[in-house]
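Lab notebook, page 48
Experiment: co-folding of the full assembly
Goal: obtain a model of how the components sit together before planning crosslinking
Operator: M.T.
Materials (sequences as entered):
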Amino acid sequence: MRKTWLLFLALCAACAAPDLSTLPRDERFFASLHHSLRAAFLAEALPTCPAYQGLRELCEQAPLRLAGSPGAERAVEWGRGAFERAGLANVRLEPCTVPRWERGEVEELTVVEPAEHAGERIPILALGGSVPTPAEGLEADVLAVTSFEELQARAAEAAGRIVLFARPMDRAQLDPFEAYGGAVSQRSNGAVEAAQAGGVAALVRSMTLAQDDEPHTGALRYQEGVPPVPAAAVSTNGAERIGAWLSAGKRVRLRLALACRTLADVPSANVVGEIPGRERPGEVVLLGAHLDAWDVGQGAHDDGAGCAHLVGAARMLVRHFRQADIQPRRTIRFVLFMNEENGLRGALAYRDAHLAELPQHVLAIESDRGGFMPLGWAADATGASLTALRQLLGGPETTRGGGADISVLAEHGVPLVGLYPNPQRYFDFHHSRKDVPAAVDARELEHGSAWLAALAYLAAMQEDPLPRSEPRPRRR
Amino acid sequence: MRKTWLLFLALCAACAAPDLSTLPRDERFFASLHHSLRAAFLAEALPTCPAYQGLRELCEQAPLRLAGSPGAERAVEWGRGAFERAGLANVRLEPCTVPRWERGEVEELTVVEPAEHAGERIPILALGGSVPTPAEGLEADVLAVTSFEELQARAAEAAGRIVLFARPMDRAQLDPFEAYGGAVSQRSNGAVEAAQAGGVAALVRSMTLAQDDEPHTGALRYQEGVPPVPAAAVSTNGAERIGAWLSAGKRVRLRLALACRTLADVPSANVVGEIPGRERPGEVVLLGAHLDAWDVGQGAHDDGAGCAHLVGAARMLVRHFRQADIQPRRTIRFVLFMNEENGLRGALAYRDAHLAELPQHVLAIESDRGGFMPLGWAADATGASLTALRQLLGGPETTRGGGADISVLAEHGVPLVGLYPNPQRYFDFHHSRKDVPAAVDARELEHGSAWLAALAYLAAMQEDPLPRSEPRPRRR
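Observation: model returned without errors.
Model output:
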């Protein structure tokens, strides 16, 4: 049987399993503390699920809340009220300036050829930040590619065409975030790559594992010196139809019409509230999520869930400290960031406004991976800081980034953690019309609040602060 | 700050957190093995999700498959075919005799008083095994109680009445299975308790945390010497309406009509298949789930998911052993049990038919808690067996029972394990019309198969068998 065990160990090596033996023993002590704290918080919260009530309020009052929109301003007001009702102190708006992009009224992709499908519509959503097409639309043949390398190799065919980036998210990945990471550059950079190859527009297969007619939007980037071309996400079914026509040797010609536009930047705000520390009020444990959401659906998982998690955690912690008649050792600061989706301007404004305090930010925690049942954490720190952080987390942990908003603190040596809910269904909803409160389970959402509250409690209460991390580049 | 930490430790004690420090160090080694095995299995399975395909086949071919019904026989045929297509050896049917209960065509609860609601219907489902009412129905005033103790104290009021058992599942419980365990005796024993107090029928608030109009059925027990009275589950909304009328001091009078019936026992079967062991073929690692389901919905989570888990795990393991050109050290036996829901006759027949082999059943594993994302395991063993089992499981584990079917092996000293998926939404679907394949996520289901396959692999391959447990009473 030796052969089997060798095969077995080779398998382990190949799969790069986390080396669990390096975790300190005390992780188990903290695991037990987390369990107990969560249980205590949840016993109070589960009967009424206040976090889910918060999510519904936000999505009713500001279903569409892309930064710079009237909905985003209503979301800011919701956040301020929710923090005040949760009993936080020092509730305030901290200003930032945000871009303003509007989808406009026209958003159409129409088949010209194959002739037998002429006039049929394929569901799309303009990518956030896209330039419009001419008012009469833009008609061109389609070149489909599955990588930037393929596009470069076929650049001669790309001139004057609409380039479809058709690589699916890889279903074989255990974690859909890995699959997303392996495909999303098509959305972020497809417009630039298409233009550099001489293309006139970019279409991108939607970033989802669902096979349906629902397109999923998201941000694109343009690049200085490369002409901006219009870009839109196509539903997965739409991308497969186009691919099937091309595979069958048919000419595919489409007309794209987008009326989106970028307006002047406008003022907006992050919403901040605190549970002030007593012994070391200058040391900050930051809990973050983002208020803005794409302008389709209601941003329930992305990131209404994170906002609701914070409001729920605030209620749990405020109540706990009041009942025990104590204050935390350190300050716990709650921040609802503006403009995560298309600029990160809120996060950058927070960093700039609090620059002098950052050396005393002992931990930043973000919830921006949806409202499903928590499975663990994503930790981002280095050296002794990472070792101590793993111990404090007391449970399953990946080495992904903590979250986009708090990522701007990495360069300042702040240890970062992201809540890691069950990711299997997240991209079914992400950035689409399907992302509504009915897609979030009230009890699972409440568990997320309890996970965040317990971690913030431990980080704010333990004797010594977490060791600083080395400064390091941002990652989401 | 000492005060806070004391409060803290008191909190831990109060919440009875698992004492993680007692787990052996080697748990981490096994955690790493589980992780690697699952990753290898899933990389093959996730692109096509064969377990979910199996679930859909089962639910299409045999949506209604209560033991003794024609649907149950179609489910047996599906199981045999699915095991054969998965590449198992020695696929066979093992006979058992099962009860046959039919819901019948009439199932009505009609308001007589309050007069302003006369004629309105309240949604119900007869409990499995219930006797019928007279053909013209049964009309009586209602007494609502929240416990058997309250019923006994108010026995004078119960005579001639319909007794409504109205205690909700406790939302404050972190784990809905705890909440279920705290309420389900009303369904199991309510008819007997009602009859003993002189009542003429029993109504039970549905066992669910959902607040809606969907009743959830399940089995009841009658007791020798106590007259059997008809019993039905009322939707949670229905139970609350009746409760509100009574609280307002109104007389509540209802007419119950049930046409259900119990027929003579009929022959049926468990479906069995194997991956034969090479070195120790007589030692058995058993993987079980149950084929039968209630006669509403399609039994997708309960327990179509478990059947699909087994078929998926069988494919993963058969493929793995073929590719490696080896056989497992021990035999891995897959069993789809019949009649878990209302008799456990399949499990008992298995036990009786394999009595001589039971001392060599090294581990029995069941999946009967739905198709959601696995969070851990439920372990049921004693002493050194439990210690070794925890090590082998390599991860989060509760001390609940392994599952109803394998529970009959507890008296024979077999260590038992149940897969423990995320339980938060399970009772939204359980035993109701809502339990359909659309409520199960394909990727989450596949993760469950991989968890089972990895555990069966480790138990079948490790050098020494798990130590025997002490014989102990059954628990689910």
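Interpretation: The first strand of chain A starts at residue 89 and ends at 102.
Next step: discuss with group before ordering constructs.
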